[in-house]
TrEMBL record:
GO terms for biological process: negative regulation of DNA-templated transcription. Belongs to the FrmR/RcnR family. InterPro entries: Metal_Tscrpt_repr, Metal_Tscrpt_repr_sf. One of its GO terms (molecular function) is DNA binding. Pfam families: Trns_repr_metal. This is Metal-sensitive transcriptional regulator.
Length: 103
């Protein structure tokens, strides 16, 4: 799904630019995964498995980087939009818990 097909909703979670950047990164990962699927379908030799493994590892790393990008953007946006220090702390604690749970 290209970001041209998605309506970017304005809100307080992420800025429009952060969403656009993240969607672009995810679209590249989607293309990378389609390439991995083709490699799997065409794998005939043991060396082909090496190539598939390498591309899977690269896609996994790219997805991990997009997770970091998501959290970094959320930290910047939500802390910047906080009404006071307590709200910023609560937001930071919530995002830290997400990092601990999903990373």
């Amino acid at each position: 799904m290209a970001d041209g097909q998605l309506k970017i909703v304005e809100g307080s979670a992420l800025t429009g630019q952060q969403k656009k950047d993240l969607l672009n990164r995810l679209a590249r990962i989607e293309g990378q995964l389609r390439g991995v699927q083709k490699l799997v379908a065409l794998a005939a030799e043991p060396s082909d498995v090496d190539a598939v493994a390498q591309q899977m590892a690269a896609a996994r790393k790219a997805l991990d980087r997009s997770f970091v990008q998501l959290l970094a953007g959320a930290i910047q946006t939500q802390a910047g939009n906080a009404a006071d220090v307590e709200e910023a702390r609560a937001s930071a604690a919530h995002l830290a818990a997400m990092l601990d749970r999903f990373a």
